[in-house]
Write a structure and sequence with these properties.
Structural class: alpha/beta
CATH topology of the largest domain: Glycerol-3-phosphate (1)-acyltransferase
Strand content: 5-15%
Helix content: 55-70%
CATH architecture of the largest domain: 3-Layer(aba) Sandwich
Radius of gyration: 24 Å
Shape: globular
Low-confidence stretches: 1-5
Order of helices and strands: HEEHEHEHEHEEHHHHHHHHHHH
Number of helices: 16
CATH superfamily of the largest domain: Glycerol-3-phosphate (1)-acyltransferase
Oligomer: single chain
Length: about 425
């Protein structure tokens, strides 16, 4: 590919415009798909300072996309190499900050191409860019940390000490967490601690292979201190259920939410099989009682809503809820139907759902824009132009409406059966290890 005749500057200008358009489309899609998006520590990624970002990988290709959109700096990242086979595709994807990387499943003959892949990564870092690597190598739903591949450490050491151009190159940890795989999930991103490379130079110059192994091991230790992970991956679904409850207590203190989530994972992993079964039964009964009485876990949290302001929002936003629901119900349902029918792996579900929703939403929006424009319906054209904001408002309205209903039910039950409410609060404390 490197010998392929380059395209014209105008072609690369169009691709750059495509990148900005894609970024905007994904920003809008994510704001609609996710109910809450929290980003901590993005200021650590100083402009012009190179860094290798190492992140956990819970949701396939979506992980790189959300980091590229919300971290505030352009990010380059490795993508499976078999999709780069056509020269035109290769040029477009590389300009969209993607770098092909090959594994044995793509054919052993392609493995030699990884030298050019790692060379490109080193050049990008030497120019002060960010390079995203998922060192566990593959995506999965399980929160159990997997052994690191050596590629990240090798690229880091070669860039820092062979090329000698990447001043202050460091390893930067990034934690990703989705409250669940599906529409309306919460997205949490935390830029964590940094590992500087200065202390590895002597070892790398004398024994490169040992230095790579040492850096890989140190990266794994740092990584496990800075992501939400679970030593017993088979308990992931339980952990995610409890972590969603913890978010209700810490939605105004995101750093507290991170550490509460790690504590939940540690506590679950430390349980014996018998105690874990008892805990699961308690959690199941808690949620069954919530459902039976029409309650919401947030009503029992330390961050109860202000019912008056919530009611004001419901009244004021009702027209936008109606408009957003009427306009966007069809593409929303079609997107979900496609994701449900085509995806077999849960860690791919959120990625595919977002991709289909973004594409379907764009086609739907553009079609009506063109129709109203050529029909001379300027007011309807303007209404459709603003409709993504109505969709967002409609989803907020649905969320607030459910919360308001649950809060009314909670207050009513508190008057009738205060003992039951206190029992539920106590059970909740035990579930959250308070």
């Amino acid at each position: 590919m490197d010998g392929y005749e380059p395209f014209t500057p105008f072609f690369y200008y169009l691709v750059a415009m495509l990148y900005r358009f894609g970024w905007t489309l994904m920003w809008v899609t994510f704001r609609i798909f996710f109910r809450k998006i929290d980003v901590l520590g993005a200021e650590k990624l100083q402009h012009g300072k190179p860094a290798i970002l190492i992140a956990n990988h819970p949701a396939s290709f979506l992980d790189a996309m959300v980091l590229a959109v919300f971290l505030g700096r352009p990010i380059h990242f490795y993508v499976r190499g078999d999709i780069f086979s056509h020269p035109l595709v290769y040029r477009i994807l590389t300009k969209l900050h993607m770098i092909p990387i090959f594994s044995r499943e793509h054919g052993t003959g392609n493995l030699a191409k990884n030298k050019a892949t790692f060379d490109r990564g080193r050049k990008l870092l030497s120019a002060g860019n960010l390079l995203l690597i998922f060192p566990e190598g593959f995506s999965r739903q399980s929160k159990q940390a997997e052994p690191f591949k050596k590629g990240a450490a090798r690229v880091a050491l070669q860039t820092a000490f062979d090329d000698g151009k990447a001043d202050h190159l460091c390893i930067q940890t990034v934690a990703l967490n989705y409250s669940h795989h599906g529409f309306g999930a919460n997205l949490f991103i935390r830029v964590g601690d940094t590992l500087e490379l200065d202390g590895y130079e002597t070892a790398y110059r004398e024994f490169p292979a040992q230095a790579v192994n040492k850096l890989t091991a140190d990266m794994q230790v740092l990584f496990e201190k800075n992501v939400i992970h679970l030593r017993k991956g088979e308990r992931t679904e339980t952990a995610e259920s409890v972590i969603r409850m913890a978010y209700h207590d810490h939605h105004k203190n995101k750093e507290g939410y991170f550490w509460a989530s790690r504590n939940i994972c540690e506590s679950l992993a430390d349980m014996s099989d018998y105690n874990y079964e008892v805990y699961q039964e308690k959690l199941l009964q808690y949620h069954q009682k919530l459902h039976l009485h029409g309650l919401d876990d947030m009503s029992f949290s330390t961050s109860a809503i202000n019912m008056n302001s919530n009611m004001f929002f419901l009244i004021a936003a009702l027209p936008f809820y109606l408009l957003g629901t009427i306009i966007w119900w069809i593409p929303g349902k079609i997107s979900k139907w496609i994701a449900d029918k085509t995806v077999t792996r849960i860690d791919f579900y959120t990625s595919v759902y977002n991709g289909v929703l973004g594409f379907m939403g764009l086609i739907w929006w553009l079609s009506w824009q063109l129709f109203f424009w050529f029909a001379g319906q300027k007011m309807l054209w303007l209404l459709m132009f603003l409709s993504p904001a109505f969709c967002f408002a409609a989803l907020e309205w649905i969320d607030c409406s459910a919360r308001q209903k649950a809060e009314f039910q909670f207050n009513s039950l508190l008057k009738k059966n205060a003992v039951f409410i206190e029992q539920m609060k106590q059970i909740r404390k035990e579930i959250l290890f308070d």
